[in-house]
């Protein structure tokens, strides 16, 4: 990238960067070698001609766009397979995926959930049967759980799998419209297999939801098998190329061994054998929620890179009347909009790495029959997924708005990035629903704290606060982290007290819960924010980096702490010992941090190391040729391929002529 002829503003920005951009790239990637390997892989992918689109996708019809995405998905699969064989390298498909598809691969659910569920829910024999076929794409699958009538409340799913001991088969049925599967990615026209989550019935008795692996299309003709009704759900806000679909069964039989039985089992005679914990059936969702936190980091870095580079190139208005128009990045309001995006991406990445480790530890424990830390993992993954996805959506939208009119252009890529980022707020557990899951855990933890019990690490601050809620406020990062814990503890207590108040007024627990649920949701958000602050600050101070880089990383981490303290200062005034003077000091600190980060802004987004092919943006490319690219892309419009459009002769001319009469 270094030899590209760049916009002079970007050249100047890069020259004033105070840290070594390559050092930060290596830190993000996990070492210099990892960067080399990543770059080599990406270079290979983006030099494949067939993966490059001649015409921007947006001009294609819905059908052509899908077909183009499948074409590219298959080429990408082949190239990756060869590459992995040759170099023994496991690439991050999500980064290049953005480059190749702009939006989402029709194989996303195959890679992200189908294969993962076979691994997580299948017995060793079932894995041996299906995993090799799924991994080498002999079969293509998705995860079909959500139905027209139920997505959040999965105990309410209606798809039935009724066991027939005579034939040792399950009979799948979707008797009502609301029971039809609705949403699974790739289901529309791509996959031939599904993980179907259905209610198990044996001898008329319900045994809850279980995962089944089901072939739905013929492997040669791709026609739906008899008894299967399947199709695509149509255009959406984003995810256009994900090929989301619907599915229903009519007396469709599958062998007994197609129920994934790592947890619960159905024996030949129809005996149901309970698993260690019925919630382990929800395991794939927990894994993906963890992954989404990492995805939020990537999505935020895409938007930040585009908006910061654009803001360095774009000049508009003046700060001082007699001086030239300034780079819009010099407006402190612009820095306020954008630097939190850079900081958030780092926070999400650090928290993702922390959460992944917890996830892997819990998986190891479960393999040994220990499930003590599962509730804590579930609660933590739920609230972090909810808050990070919501933050990422807001940050991406703020970046888009920060690019003014040009941010509204599809060619900026910000609308697309927003489309797939905001989807993470809903899928894999709608945000409020997940926050309320965490609230269940917090309320239990609070009760345990009141009883003087030892709490799990992520909630031990509740006991600390009970012992001493009168800690003096300190305007240091550690003091702010403590402040976030005080806010969370105060909110958990208030929500808990509210439930108790309603119970005393004669409400039963469920109604009291519902009445207190806004507070419970906010308590859960505050808990999540305290984890984000504590973990990310902790990771930064433990980072080994050169003094220059460490200084910048600390500035970003502090910016995140101060930004969110100021954003939620009302909560701090209510639940911590912060004073108005402390808030004034933090405001000053925030302005200092914005000024300190300003000279490094372009260097910081360069360090996300997102190639132009991944950014896909007229506004965000490395060379900053913004206006040239906007014009080049505009000229690709089919309407610009003819000097006079047929509609002139057909409609406009007659209209004008009629007006003359
Ligand atoms: C620069 C760094 C960059 C790194 C880049 C990394 C990039 C990595 C990217 C990875 C991304 C991966 C992406 C992969 C593909 C993504 C595509 C996804 C497309 C979308 C797919 C989907 O949406 S699939 C469908 C998802 N559906 C849901 O999520 C449904 C949500 N609902 C539920 O989960 C449940 O209904 C529920 C949890 C809300 C409630 O369940 P239930 O009613 O059964 O339980 P209760 O509420 O009664 O609670 C009872 C009890 O159980 C506990 N519990 C509930 N769930 C769990 C669980 N999963 N584990 C453990 N325990 C659980 C609950 O807490 C209760 O406990 P109590 O003690 O009784 O309180
Ligand atoms: C882009 C995209 C891709 C998807 N891909 C897949 C896929 O591959 N496979 C799959 O199975 N599914 C998929 N889904 C479905 C997704 O998992 C669900 O849409 C999601 O879990 C939310 O469920 P819902 O649609 O039923 O929302 P609802 O639950 O109907 O939510 C509507 C409102 O009700 C509120 N609400 C619901 N329950 C409660 C409660 N208990 N307390 C308080 N408020 C509540 C919610 O907060 C929300 O405000 C996808 C969805 C999207 C958008």
UniProtKB/TrEMBL annotation:
<dbReference type="InterPro" id="IPR037069">
    <property type="entry name" value="AcylCoA_DH/ox_N_sf"/>
</dbReference>
<dbReference type="InterPro" id="IPR012258">
    <property type="entry name" value="Acyl-CoA_oxidase"/>
</dbReference>
<feature type="active site" description="Proton acceptor">
    <location>
        <position position="428"/>
    </location>
</feature>
<feature type="binding site">
    <location>
        <position position="146"/>
    </location>
    <ligand>
        <name>FAD</name>
    </ligand>
</feature>
<keyword id="KW-0067">ATP-binding</keyword>
<dbReference type="GO" id="GO:0033540">
    <property type="term" value="P:fatty acid beta-oxidation using acyl-CoA oxidase"/>
</dbReference>
<dbReference type="GO" id="GO:0071949">
    <property type="term" value="F:FAD binding"/>
</dbReference>
<dbReference type="GO" id="GO:0003997">
    <property type="term" value="F:acyl-CoA oxidase activity"/>
</dbReference>
<keyword id="KW-0560">Oxidoreductase</keyword>
<keyword id="KW-0547">Nucleotide-binding</keyword>
<dbReference type="GO" id="GO:0005524">
    <property type="term" value="F:ATP binding"/>
</dbReference>
<feature type="domain" description="Acyl-coenzyme A oxidase N-terminal">
    <location>
        <begin position="20"/>
        <end position="140"/>
    </location>
</feature>
<dbReference type="Pfam" id="PF22924">
    <property type="entry name" value="ACOX_C_alpha1"/>
</dbReference>
<dbReference type="InterPro" id="IPR002655">
    <property type="entry name" value="Acyl-CoA_oxidase_C"/>
</dbReference>
<feature type="domain" description="Acyl-CoA oxidase C-terminal">
    <location>
        <begin position="477"/>
        <end position="657"/>
    </location>
</feature>
<dbReference type="GO" id="GO:0005777">
    <property type="term" value="C:peroxisome"/>
</dbReference>
<dbReference type="GO" id="GO:0005504">
    <property type="term" value="F:fatty acid binding"/>
</dbReference>
<keyword id="KW-0276">Fatty acid metabolism</keyword>
<feature type="domain" description="Acyl-CoA oxidase C-alpha1">
    <location>
        <begin position="282"/>
        <end position="443"/>
    </location>
</feature>
<dbReference type="GO" id="GO:0055088">
    <property type="term" value="P:lipid homeostasis"/>
</dbReference>
<dbReference type="Pfam" id="PF01756">
    <property type="entry name" value="ACOX"/>
</dbReference>
<keyword id="KW-0443">Lipid metabolism</keyword>
<dbReference type="InterPro" id="IPR046373">
    <property type="entry name" value="Acyl-CoA_Oxase/DH_mid-dom_sf"/>
</dbReference>
<dbReference type="InterPro" id="IPR009100">
    <property type="entry name" value="AcylCoA_DH/oxidase_NM_dom_sf"/>
</dbReference>
<comment type="pathway">
    <text>Lipid metabolism; peroxisomal fatty acid beta-oxidation.</text>
</comment>
<keyword id="KW-0576">Peroxisome</keyword>
<dbReference type="InterPro" id="IPR036250">
    <property type="entry name" value="AcylCo_DH-like_C"/>
</dbReference>
<protein>
    <recommendedName>
        <fullName>Acyl-coenzyme A oxidase</fullName>
    </recommendedName>
</protein>
<dbReference type="Pfam" id="PF14749">
    <property type="entry name" value="Acyl-CoA_ox_N"/>
</dbReference>
<dbReference type="InterPro" id="IPR029320">
    <property type="entry name" value="Acyl-CoA_ox_N"/>
</dbReference>
<keyword id="KW-0285">Flavoprotein</keyword>
<keyword id="KW-0274">FAD</keyword>
<feature type="binding site">
    <location>
        <position position="185"/>
    </location>
    <ligand>
        <name>FAD</name>
    </ligand>
</feature>
<dbReference type="InterPro" id="IPR055060">
    <property type="entry name" value="ACOX_C_alpha1"/>
</dbReference>
<comment type="similarity">
    <text>Belongs to the acyl-CoA oxidase family.</text>
</comment>
């Amino acid at each position: 990238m270094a030899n590209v002829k760049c916009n002079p503003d970007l050249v100047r920005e890069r020259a004033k960067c105070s840290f070594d951009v390559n050092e930060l790239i290596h830190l993000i990637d996990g070492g210099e070698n990892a960067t080399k390997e990543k770059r080599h892989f990406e270079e290979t992918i983006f030099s494949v001609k067939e993966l490059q689109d001649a015409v921007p996708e947006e001009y294609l019809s819905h059908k052509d766009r899908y077909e183009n995405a499948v074409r590219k998905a298959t080429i990408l699969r082949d190239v990756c397979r060869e590459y992995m064989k040759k170099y023994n390298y496991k690439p991050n498909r999500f980064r290049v995926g953005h480059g190749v598809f702009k939006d989402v691969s029709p194989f996303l659910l195959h890679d992200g959930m189908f294969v993962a569920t076979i691994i997580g829910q299948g017995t060793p024999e079932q894995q041996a049967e299906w995993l090799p076929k799924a991994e080498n794409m002999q079969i293509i699958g998705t995860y079909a759980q959500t139905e027209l009538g139920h997505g959040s409340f999965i105990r309410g799913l209606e798809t039935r799998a009724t066991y027939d001991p005579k034939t040792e088969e399950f009979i799948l049925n979707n008797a009502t419209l609301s029971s039809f599967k609705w949403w699974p990615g790739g289901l529309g026209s791509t996959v031939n297999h599904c993980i179907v989550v259905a209610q198990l019935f044996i001898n008329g008795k319900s045994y809850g939801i279980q995962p089944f692996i089901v072939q739905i299309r013929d492997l040669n003709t791709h026609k739906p098998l008899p008894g299967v009704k399947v199709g695509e759900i149509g255009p959406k806000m984003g995810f256009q190329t994900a090929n989301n679909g619907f599915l229903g069964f009519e007396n469709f039989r599958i062998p007994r061994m197609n129920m994934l039985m790592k947890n619960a089992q159905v024996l030949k005679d129809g005996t149901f054998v309970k698993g260690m914990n019925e919630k382990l059936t929800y395991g794939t969702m927990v894994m993906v929620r963890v992954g989404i936190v990492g995805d939020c980091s990537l999505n935020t870095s895409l938007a930040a890179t585009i908006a910061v580079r654009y803001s360095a190139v774009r000049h508009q208005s003046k700060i001082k009347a007699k001086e030239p128009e300034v780079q819009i990045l010099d407006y402190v309001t612009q820095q306020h909009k954008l630097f939190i995006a850079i900081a958030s991406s780092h926070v999400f990445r650090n928290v993702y790495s922390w959460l992944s480790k917890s996830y892997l530890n819990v998986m190891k424990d479960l393999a040994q029959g220990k499930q003590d830390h599962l509730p804590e993992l579930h609660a933590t993954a739920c609230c972090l997924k909810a808050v990070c996805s919501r933050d990422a959506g807001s940050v991406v939208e703020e970046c888009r708005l920060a690019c003014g009119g040009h941010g509204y252009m599809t060619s900026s890529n910000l609308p697309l990035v927003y489309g797939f980022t905001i989807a993470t707020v809903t899928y894999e557990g709608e945000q409020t629903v997940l926050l309320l899951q965490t609230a269940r855990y917090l309320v239990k933890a609070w009760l345990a704290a009141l009883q003087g019990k030892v709490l799990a690490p992520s909630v031990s601050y509740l006991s600390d606060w009970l012992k001493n809620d009168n800690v003096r406020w300190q305007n240091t990062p550690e003091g702010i982290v403590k402040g976030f814990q005080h806010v969370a503890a105060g909110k958990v207590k208030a929500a808990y007290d509210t439930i108790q108040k309603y119970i005393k007024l004669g409400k039963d627990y469920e109604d009291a819960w519902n009445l207190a649920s806004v507070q419970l949701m906010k308590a859960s958000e505050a808990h999540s924010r305290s984890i984000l602050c504590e973990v990310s600050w902790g990771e930064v101070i433990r980072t080994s980096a050169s003094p220059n880089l460490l200084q910048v990383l600390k500035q970003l981490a502090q910016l995140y702490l101060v930004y969110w303290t100021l954003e939620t200062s009302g909560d701090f005034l209510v639940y911590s010992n912060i004073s108005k003077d402390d808030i004034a000091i933090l405001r000053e600190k925030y302005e200092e941090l914005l000024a300190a980060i300003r000279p490094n802004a372009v260097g910081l987004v360069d360090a996300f190391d997102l190639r132009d092919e991944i950014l896909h943006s007229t506004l965000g490319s490395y060379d900053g040729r913004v206006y040239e690219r906007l014009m080049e892309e505009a000229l690709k419009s089919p309407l610009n391929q003819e000097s006079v459009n047929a509609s002139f002769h057909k409609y406009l001319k007659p209209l004008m002529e009629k007006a003359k009469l």
